[in-house]
Design brief:
Its cofactor is Zn(2+). InterPro entries: Aldolase_TIM, BKACE. About 40% of the residues lie in helices and about 20% in strands. The chain is built from eleven helices and 14 strands. The longest helix has 15 residues. Strands 2-3-4-5-8-9-10-11 form an eight-stranded parallel beta barrel, surrounded by seven helices. The protein binds (5S)-5-amino-3-OXO-hexanoic acid and zinc ion (ZN). The site of zinc ion has 8 residues, from loops.
Length: about 300
Amino acid sequence: MAKPRKVIITCAVTGAIHTPSMSEFLPVTPAEIADAAIGAAKAGAAVVHLHARDPGDGRPDQSPEAFAPFLGVIKQASDCVVNITTGGAPTMSIEERVRPAETHRPEIASLNMGSMNFGLFPMLKRFPDLKHQWERDYVGNKNIIFNNAFGQIEYILTTLGPLGTKFEFECYDTAHLYNLKHFLDEGLVEGPLFIQTVFGLMGGIGAHPDDVMHMKRTADRLFGDRYIWSVLGAGKNQLPIAAMAAAMGGNIRVGLEDSLWIGPGQFAQSNAEQVAKACQIIEGLGLAPATPDEAREMLALKG
Ligand SMILES: C[C@H](N)CC(=O)CC(=O)O
Ligand SMILES: [Zn+2]
């Protein structure tokens, strides 16, 4: 009997896009973030993608100290692969954004492959009564540009690369794939490239099946067999995009960073609930979730 293809599930447990008064299930404190990551790993996630927040009002916190409490607890309780954000919040400086990964030297760090308009304001329609002023200012800001210039990307590559950290290359549009190709040609990155194509985030490519096909075709042409493909769909697109990509040979990312939902108008009550749904989808296709060590092998991580 042929062995099922192994699918790497990444779970992004809290992020810096959603804010606490949008959903009571969004992890905020270090203990909540640790529990969410450990629960997601138990449910089948091989990789956990981590941001930190101020335990008081939940605003994004990119200080290395804010990550330390939950990193220790997660390492104690799980062998999952840890992926620390270098995106932080799009309003932060590049130096601030890189510091937690530089300090904690994770196996993986996210790396955003291009600058873009970053539209959170459409969420104001769904969440008109945000509690904190900072939430209203942040989500309502129509002038956010997520800065990832070539020099800034190079700064992150040359700061974290020598520490043995590998990257989750976040590509929100076709141009970002070409930017990654540039760094490959320059020898600043090496395969296997873990490419996370992002769909349906305002300012990036849409979430139509044509968009998924287009990004996959472009990545196949630019990188051939030198990359591992993964997808994330923002908001209501999360599970449909995951199902499409799993059927096309891809890996998937879920988690409350990218979507607060488990179904139409239904809040996910935990990250583990989204991971369990993702497992149902891939097992339904005759595939199986990769273990953390299988993911380490597929991604050639330092372990
Ligand atoms: C769409 C995702 N929020 C992309 C992300 O996870 C960015 C990062 O942390 O570097
Ligand atoms: Zn993130």
